[in-house]
Amino acid sequence: MMDCMVNTFGNPSSIHSFGRQARHIIDDARAFIAKSINASENEIIFTSGGTEADNTALFGVAMANKEKGNHIITTSIEHHAILHTCNQLEKEGFEITYLPVNEFGEINLDALKAAITESTILVSIMYGNNEVGTIQPIKEIGELLSDSPIIFHSDAVQAYGTQLIDVKDLHLDLMSVSAHKIKGPKGIGFLYAKNGIKFVPRQYGGEQERKRRAGTENVAGIAGFKEAVRLAHDGLQGKIEKYEQFKHRMASIFEQEKIQFEINGEGAKSSLPHVLNISFSGTNVESMLVNLDLAGIAASSGSACTAGSIEPSHVLVAMFGNESSRTTNSIRFSFGFENTLDEIEKAALSITKIVKKITER
């Protein structure tokens, strides 16, 4: 990225040599990223991140297909980039069905089938949940919708880089990804849009991204994104096993220290390896987060995008109900590929001290 910012300042839309140099960086990254999900180069649209990709997918498809129908199906545990977009679409006359989930955070395929109507134009279901890690049956959903005109979108921001994703095998039409979830730069992401899927652009101006997303491309960000994709997919299986080891070790230390805890989402058929959401009985989120921060442990009570909010996690409310204590005493931990087992053990021991201090008051 530094080399790009220092030595490649040309506008990639310009035809002079400096512009062509920048364009080559974008084209190279687009091809590399497309290959990582078994897509074609022209099916990758660079965006400013997952939120823009989600908004482009939902608003774009809704507006392009409103003559065919006005019904959209999603879930009650989506990221707010999806839920708030759906809220706005409701104000604009679209009908939204929010599928419930069980106590593991999983949707029911029969409930999805029952929700489909003649006016359904789009189904948007996240790949893996950002708060509890539950993975939805994306392939089964894709197969269910593959013979229908309904467009299938998945927010894969939390899953990309920790899962092997083949958009053709999953029958996905649209998929959102953000670079910073795989240690890439913030402010860059992409929307995979299958060839032939029509949507109305959300930005107007130049003819960048094949007239689908106007605005001069973030060349340095795209260069960094490519490198992050390379690093994330290099030895991916080993990273998955490492994250699972972290999960099990942290939980085993909690058990050894005899603190009261429950893993939210435990029991799901499949879950992301790097996300661990734990309910600590007898504690509260605010006190836990303050103490964790003082101990040098970076954690959250839900999505980082709602940090500072004292509202209970909508994901945990959907899983356990408003009255459950888990909505006010759960903490989300997540791991990266530079974390070490020693760090996890030290963090787990610090967490046990904090929990004991709070619960013994």
From TrEMBL:
It catalyses: (sulfur carrier)-H + L-cysteine = (sulfur carrier)-SH + L-alanine. The keyword Metal-binding applies. Belongs to the class-V pyridoxal-phosphate-dependent aminotransferase family. NifS/IscS subfamily. Pfam families: Aminotran_5. Keywords: Aminotransferase, Iron, Iron-sulfur, Metal-binding, Pyridoxal phosphate, Transferase. This is cysteine desulfurase. Its EC number is 2.8.1.7. Its cofactor is pyridoxal 5'-phosphate. GO terms for molecular function: cysteine desulfurase activity; iron-sulfur cluster binding; metal ion binding; transaminase activity. SUPFAM superfamilies: PLP-dependent transferases. InterPro entries: Aminotrans_V_dom (IPR000192), Aminotrans_V_PyrdxlP_BS (IPR020578), Cysteine_dSase (IPR016454), PyrdxlP-dep_Trfase (IPR015424), PyrdxlP-dep_Trfase_major (IPR015421), PyrdxlP-dep_Trfase_small (IPR015422). The keyword Iron applies. It is an enzyme of class 2 (transferase). Residues 7-346 form the Aminotransferase class V domain.
